[in-house]
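Form 12-C: Joint structure prediction
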Amino acid sequence: MSSDLRDLYQEVVVDHSRRPRNFRKLEHADRTVTGRNPLCGDQLTLYVKLKDQVIEDIAFEGSGCAISKASASLMTSILKGKTKAEAEELFRQFHSLITEGPDGSVKREQLGKLAALGGVSEFPARVKCASLAWHTLHSALEGKQEAVSTE
Amino acid sequence: MRAKLEALPSPPAHLDPERARADFPILRQKVHGRPLVYLDNAATSQKPSSVIDAISNFYATTNANVHRGVHALSERATEQFELAREKVRAFINAPRVEEVVFVRGATEAINLIAQTFGRSRVRPGDEIVVSALEHHSNIVPWQLLCESTGAVLRVAPINDDGELVVGEFEAMLGPKTRLVALAHVSNALGTINPVRQLVAAAHSHGVPVVLDGAQAIPHLKVDVKALDCDFYVFSGHKMFGPMGIGALFGKAELLESMPPYQGGGDMILSVTFEKTIYNRVPYKFEAGTPDVGGAIGLGSAIDYLTGLGMEQIAAYEHDLLGYATAAIAAVPGVRLVGTARQKAGVISFLLGDIHPHDIGTILDQEGIAIRTGHHCAQPVMQRFGIDATARASLAFYNTREDIDRLVAGLERVKEIFQ
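Section 2 - Result
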């Protein structure tokens, strides 16, 4: 197996894709937004419960590839208890990671387990898979209710 | 100007894939360090050197606008352009050369029919019948037509094998039906529709039929006279010709009765601000400078296919499809999607609960190109309750070794997701 492939499908990624965390509908969510990747047909619905500026709970449902599922699972795991501003900053860091790779301007220590998706940077066609959950989150935090598209 | 075809020598009795492969320079490369295995032919096919040279030679020696100039280059370009039209006519056995309209591809051809034939004949409450097998390009143009005319789109169902349910299709035909539009071969599943029978059924109700031949023409001998279809459309790039060129066959009396599609140069006889007189067919539908180099490239692809023999291609691919279907189905965890008795060129499948995009990425690292996703046929996916499939699609330059590489690649996929 190529080392790029091993970097892409790290154990953490395969594990989160197989057994996604927070994979459920959140009753009484404050924000519900559906994100779609029209070329792939991937879609996920993100539920966010906010208290003041803090993400109190977050969950998702939907279907997609291992990368998009693992990304949503890892994202929801890391965001509980974070403020909206912290979440947006993580998105910024995460986006650099998956587009520029680990040698870019990313502060890896802030990313924690999200760093497992760093291998995506070697697969430009899969960047939109990894970022779908985050674009959907961004829309949810901005208070938008309409669907998000990565195209 | 009436172009005449030179007789080509008859093709060898059997297709030799290794010899054919040697004609395709792109297949000689490595991808991610492995020799390329190209199994995405239903998305687009590769081009033989003869096609690449024909296009290059046109621009190097002949380039000029057609149907206009009195100078030598323009006359030569026109002659070659019209010769390409005659090659298309002969290839599909159309009765008359003016029944061949050059278009950008099958998609444009279907839009042309919907916007001209459709708009001039379809009234509120009329019905257009398609099948559940169609590519988006044979759905959306009809939806647009229905929206603008108040007509209704009806969809003939398919069974669990991905075959059109002929009885239900026939039951949909009636006095309200204005048009039937069907894939000859399904791009997502490979099903070959019994189009001769379906055309006859529609004609018994006086309903004209459009056949989308984009996936049939690289694999099967197409004879529009024998099929008796009213329109037949296809793209050059799926039959080893260039992108951006395709053809629409239409029966002359229908083409003549249809209003023009786009306005512009070449489609007129005379223009005044009071009245414009349209050109005769096929030029009435070819506004603006056409893709002359593309048409010449398509003509060259037809020469190439004729040299191999469509019967020989079909026989070779039938054998390879059988081998590939058995080999892929034998991989534990594989579920085939689309198991019609009559198929051409396509194996769509799922592998356990592994998403097709992950299969595609991993195979790519092994140098194997397949298509993953909904194949621009989301209603087909919905029919099977899935979002996507992995699709290996064949051409005559594929070999059993390519299939063995694919099967080994699928084992790699399973290792990663164990």
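Section 3 - Comments
The mean pLDDT of chain A is 90. Residues 3-149 of chain A form a domain with the Sufe protein. Chain: A fold (CATH 3.90.1010.10).
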